[in-house]
Each structure stands twice: as C-alpha cells, then as structure tokens.
Amino acid sequence: MPELDTQYLCDLAAQLRVDSIRAAAAAGSGHPTSSMSAAELMAVLFARHLVYDFDEPGNPLNDHLIFSKGHASPLLYSLFKAAGAITDEELLTFRKRGSRLEGHPTPRLPWVDVATGSLGQGLPVGVGVALAGRLERLPYRVWVLCGDSELAEGSMWEAAEHAGVEGLDRLTAIVDVNRLGQRGPTRHGWDTGAYARRFGAFGWHTVEIDGHDPVEIDFALAEAVRTRRRPTVILARTHKGRGVKEVDNREGRHGKPLKNPDAAVEELGGRRELTVRVRAPEESRSPRRFDGGPLKMPEYEVGATVATRSAYGDALVALGQARGEVVALDGEVADSTKAEKFAETFPDRFVECYIAEQQMVAAAMGLQTRGWMPFAATFAAFLTRAHDFVRMAGISGSDIRLVGSHAGVAIGEDGPSQMGLEDLAMMRSAYGSTVLYPCDANQTAALVAEMASCEGVTYLRTTRGETPVIYGAGESFPVGGSRVLRRSPEDRATVVAAGVTVHEALAAADTLAEQGIAVGVIDLYSVKPVDVAALREAAETTGNLITVEDHRPEGGLGDAVLEAVCELGPRVVKLAVRNLPGSATPAEQLADAGIDREAIVRAVKRLL
Length: 608
Hints:
Blueprint: H1 6-27, H2 32-36, H3 39-49, E1 64-67, H4 73-82, H5 88-91, H6 122-136, E2 142-147, H7 154-166, E3 171-177, H8 192-201, E4 205-210, H9 214-226, E5 232-237, H10 261-267, E6 305-307, H11 308-322, E7 326-330, H12 334-337, H13 340-345, E8 350-352, H14 357-368, E9 373-379, H15 380-383, H16 387-396, E10 400-405, H17 423-429, E11 434-436, H18 441-451, E12 457-461, E13 466-468, E14 483-486, E15 493-497, H19 500-514, E16 519-523, E17 526-528, H20 532-542, E18 544-548, H21 557-565, E19 571-575, H22 586-593, H23 597-607
Parallel strand pairs: 1-2, 2-3, 3-5, 4-5, 7-8, 7-9, 9-10, 10-12, 11-12, 15-16, 15-18, 18-19
Antiparallel strand pairs: 6-13, 11-17, 14-16
Helix pairs in contact: 1-3, 1-4, 1-10, 3-9, 6-7, 6-14, 11-18, 14-16, 19-23
C-alpha cells in the first residue's frame, strides 16, 4: 500500500463536502450536513482500503459498500464522481425526475446492492452479504456506513448479535457519530464508549476514533482488515456539517440544503477536480457453488391428508437437491415450518436467525445480492414484524422467497397472537410481489418449484393442519393461474377460495347441489397476480361472487378479486375473519369466523 498522503485525503474530503453541497443545492433538497460529517471516513476508505472495479460491478471479488444511512446519498454520489463512475453533470441531476441519483440510493445504480434510506436496514443486510462471502469462500469485505441515530433501531442490534455469533470478520461497520439527529441530539451524543460497550457485548471488535483525522481512520480501517474471528465496528466522533460555520455542529440543519451554498463552497476552499483510484481486485476467482441435479418433487396420493407446511419442507429439500444456490433461513421455528428437513439435509446452506424476523429477511436480501436463492420461513404472524424490510426488499428488487406457516384461525387453540390474519395484505402491498396460497400438498410442491423462477418478493402461505390432497402429483400450477373446481351452465354464483377455505367451499358446493343450487368453485391459489380472465368469466356468467378467506377482510383474497372484477359490476360478498378469535378447535374457529362450509351455504342463500 502506498504511503499515506494526508494532504490529498483532506483535499478529497473537502471535495466530497463541496460536491455534496452542490448536489443538494441543485436539487433544492437533500441531506448535505449528514454527508459532510462522514467525508474523511469515506475518502480514506475509497483511497486506501476499498477493493472495487467500477467498470465491472459484478466482479465476485469486489468489496461491498452499503450506506445504511442512505440519506447521506450526496456523499455516495460524490464518491462515485471522484471514482469516475459518474460525471459532474449527472451529479447535479440529484433528486430530479428520471435521474439515477435518487434521494436515497437504489440498485438503479449498478454499484448499489440494495435500496437504503429506511434506517436500521443497511447493517442487517450487510450481515447477509458477509454470510454469502463465507458460503462462497471469497475474500471480499463488506463495509457499512451507519449513522448514530439508527443505533436506536432494534434491527441494528439483531444484526450486531447475528454478526457477532457468526464471527463475521469480513464485516466492518463504520458509525458516523455526529451527535445530531433529525430533531436534536441523539440518545448518546458523542459518547462513543456507550456504543462500544454495546457492540462489545455482542462480540465485536471496537475502535473509537476521531472521524476527521485521516491517520486515525486509516489505522482503524487497517485494524479491521487484520481482525480475525469477529466483526469490527469503527465508532468515529464527527461533526455534522463539518467545515462550514453556518451548519457545523448546529441543530435544526438536518435534511436541508445550505442557505448560501456558494459561500460554503468558498469556505471549503472552492471546487476541486480530484480523482480517487479505487483498487480493483488483483485476481480472478469464482464463488463456490454447490452441485445440483434433476428436479424430482415429492408426490402425495389423492385422498391422503397432509399439511401444506410439511409439503413445503419436502419440496424445499427436493429443490435444494436440484439447485445448489438454494439456501434456507429460519426464525427458530424450523420444526414447525418444516424447514428443518432442509437443515438436516443441507446444514451448510441453512442459516439460523433465531427469533429475529427483521434480521432473517435482511439476511435473505444480502444473500440474494450474491446470486443465492434464499427461502426464509417463520409463522405468518411474525413476518409482520419485518414488514418494513419486506417493503424495502420490493424497492430493492430483491429476489427473496418468504414462507409464512400457521396462517389464519385454522391454527386452532393457540389463539389470536399466533394467527397470521394480515399477511396477505402485507405481502400484496409490496412492490412487484407474488403471493401464493396452496390448498394441498401436491399444489404446494408445484408452487415451491414455481417460486424458483419468480423475481422480487415471493410469498407462500402454508397451513398448520392437515388438509386433503385433491390434486394429482405433477400437475402444473403457474403463477397467475387458478383452478376451476366446480362449474356448470346452471351455476348461480361462484365461490372463490384459497388454502384451507378451498375445502370448505367444495363441501359447501356439494351441500348446495343436494338442495338444487348449483355454484361454481375457483381455487385462487395465486393471490397476486390473480387469474383475471377466470374471475371475469365467473363474474359475467354467474353475476355473483362469494370470496372466502382465512384472513382479515382488508387487503386479502376478497380485495384481490374485487380489483379484478369491479368494472364488470357483479355482486361480491366477502367472507373473512371479522371477529377477534379466542382459543378453540380449528373447526370451531372457522365456524366462529363465519368462513366454514355452513357459513358459505348461508351466504349463497342470502345472496340468491
């Protein structure tokens, strides 16, 4: 490594501040002061320690830099300019319509792994990237720039413990301790020792430094590289708005362009045109991947009773045998979700996240940036805790596969705290998501295979109890499709169901047929996207639709159907869980919620 040139590093930091100010001024918005505090930290990282080929962002040996404090995007874009990745002209398109340089970074830029900006997410995702590096047996490092304000987020400490337990020594968190948050001082101000004690308790190597001293920064970054068997956190004491008297360590200046940017630029010594030569990887190496083979999904006999969660476990093992990039993550419920079958078969590709659902989803996001195919499973109810991570995964375009078991009131006696009754709405609302809800074991296996080809956030909802197998092994269930299980020219209504309510709908149709009332039944296993053609045909031919779902009425199956047919004007009745359940048997729960076969029969008769 060349001799440390402190004057160059100081000048580069000043340039980063100037360009951050200019970008925010051109946009009329942004966070220049949050960018200015970390200028030396990033100048030294780029000039001395980062290994990255900007011409080949997909190089498997590139380091990964994640701005967990994504609002400091002017700093990131100024770094890209200094590295020659973007021009000054593009820098000044910051926050403008059509620009790649959005208010917070997204993967529209090829050098950005995931979207950040919702604080508390960059470090958790960085843990996933570091886990991928261990799987791949590659030497790249993961650098995460964090803000001190986001250390109040519980997800940061989920990440800290996960990284500490795993001993992720190629992960370094650089915390910009600038003392000031959005509305005032942070919880611990400049007390870097308070943060060091917390990270230390989770097994991290801690370094406290002056975040504006290039020599100290360089030493700390080098120490992080040398540290073995545990992650490193660099706690850097800085000034928000450093270098400009108007904003230096001043409250009330967060998230605002400077009032007099020209004077600020002059105060910082004017514009510079320095470049930084980031070291590219010096070798070529491919990541380790596990062998695959032919895909042979499990098969179940028609008429047998099998829980869809059990079929998920079997299907995941089969997919893992065929695809070496499949990895599984668990929230300490693998014996219930049946992901334990994968853990027993492929222990090297199984990640136990314990009861830390935010970290589980974030780790999946990090793993997929490296080309792995993560399946993360827990109870459907507990995925709601990770909603913000699911939302950001959609914005990132992350290809992750989530599985929620024990859905709905059908779980029975455990009561409402364990019942996933909001998950369909949550997953449907994620940008670009796919939502699947199988009713039997063979359908589950087929949909797990389909998930391997899905892009974005894909969600599979499984049931706790055993349900009858009604489909033959090997049948096809494409995403966006449905199955018409009952249909005749005499149909006076169509019942649309998914999952456990498919069996209730079939039983209700049989009861109604005995009474001389013909109704159709559609298994809408693809809740997003829905089979619009099948639903519209049913709406046009019968004029009456009844949706029945083990879910709240807001945002689930019923609303998906309404969106598809509302322009046609059919009568639509939504049967859903509107009560607050208690403890009861599964059959009693379905009856009390008004979504069992008798409730469907009554609804049809009322409608007709």
